[in-house]
Amino acid sequence: MGEKRQNMTATVKTRPETGIGLAGIINARVTYRNAPMHLLEKFTFKDIDKAHKVFIERAGFDECVILQTCNRVEIFGATKNPDEHKLLDEWVSAAGLSEKDLESIEVNRGKDAIVHLMRLASGLESLVVGEDQILGQVRRALEFSRAHRYASANLSVIFDRALKAGSRIRTATGINKGNVSIASVAVSLAEEYFEDLKNRTVLLIGTGEAASLVAKVLKRHDVNFRIASRVPERAHAFADTVAGIPIAFDTALEMLRIVDVIFTATMAPYHLITYERIENAMTNRRGRSSMMIFDLSNPRTVDERVATIRGVKLINMDQIAELVGKNMRSRIKEVNSAEKLINDEMKSFDIVIKRMKAEPIVMAVFRNVDTIRERELKKAFSMIRKKMSPDEARIIEQLSYAIVEGILSTPMNNLRKETEEGGNEELMKIVAKLFKYEENQNQQQH
Question: What global pTM score does this model have?
Fold first, then answer.
């Protein structure tokens, strides 16, 4: 009983917890599918924490989760009355967009938004179909929102189900087996270009998740490389935990004239590899005719003009997207199986969505009654003059839990069932009024 009580009261919200339902879920996104990388960069949020606050405080969201990767920027919101125009207006303002940029944004609501999240977590929306990286990215986006109290009951339920579905689909279909990642495509292209990378000088700039994927592929191919970062400590830590020979960033720039392959995978908001640096490096190359550069960053960190320099081959994410797009056609059977599993998941999910309307009221009723139970229990203990043993006190406390549970379980379960079977708004209003739900929630808010 005590464990049940702890679970019911553990989550703290920034706003009063409300039953939002299916119609209150909204998703707006820009991805590699409808925006080239240079345009996708414009939609990113420099301060992800501030972006969450903007959508909650100004767009009227009760809950918000933002997913931002090198291939997509997605906003998931939950509120009783989603306002698409407010969402888009705040995105324009927060990211410094123009009205024309809005043409690249896709918006889904309700069931369509949840199906998209299921597909996203399953890898069906990824540049490389079935890739595993997106599952971790979705999980971390949810964890960030939970930790900062931007996500509570509604989005937590949806994301948790989507993450479980994503894991289950990968196991059931094998859609991620033998998968070709963006990092492996980039390394393979470099190997094809130079025939063998083992005798080449390779430089990796960046120490984040994307860089680690490149590093692992290089290590698997027995390719030695240097790792550089603006923060020297990160380069050393990266070399210790992943791979590579750490060098100072300034040293990396000085040695460009002897580098054959450069991979940039950072989130720097400016060009790390400039036209002038590469032009100077190629001028002083001394027998080295070619250089290959892979810009895997978002936003881009390589000046596009370097592609016009003689002997330089620049590959960006848009070009890699074209190459790995073939991956989709080779996985049609697995994709069809995954989509069938998502359809099955959505059938059972409808019940969960309906139940979400009643759950906040149910939880609030249990919390409020439990407060009374605890208060009266303390009074009773103070009135009992005989000193009780710990076991006796525990028995009485467990009795108080049992009484609350015994009285409330049946009516609350009936309320849940009524909601699952089509929803009885009047019944929920009566229960909310009886237990002063709105009044208590307003007190929590203030």
Answer: 0.62
